[in-house]
Amino acid sequence: xxxxxxxxxxxxxxRRGHVHPxxxxxxxxxxxxxxxxxxRARRAALHRQVGNLAEAGRWGxxxxxxxxxEVAAFERSYPGAGQRLxxxxxxxxxxxxxxxxxxxxxxxxxxxxxxxxxxxxxxAKVGPGAGESNSxxxxxxxxxxxxxxxxxVALAVVGLSTAIRWAL
Length: 168
What we know:
Elements: H1 3-15, H2 19-32, H3 37-50, H4 53-60, H5 68-77, H6 81-87, H7 100-116, H8 136-167
């Protein structure tokens, strides 16, 4: 769907008071357009509206209208500067498109992350699948699921062939 079409659906959801679907639509748009500062501002405004200060601070971090209380809530939710930089989920350096307050906030965050020795690069992967498997238990779970799946398929084939023989 086109971005404008999805934004129109977001507005329609909000007019009807359906905040959750609007949040989901904005999250999907934000995933598709991670560097769109206007989408980030809309997402921050929606979180602000429902009282989620940490997420309002996260998505408003790169905008001029994020207040100190929201930014502080975001910082409490993600105590490491490198972690905060990663969860901002920008794929390109937005510095040239930021206002003076947001630009200063971002520069300070990058500096803090550098001091921690954890300054990630733009576009760094984050979340599940970001690195190698942390535990053999994760691999074992996949193996068990695959074996169970194969057993179910085998039983289905045996049952189907039995039913066909019985019908003939």
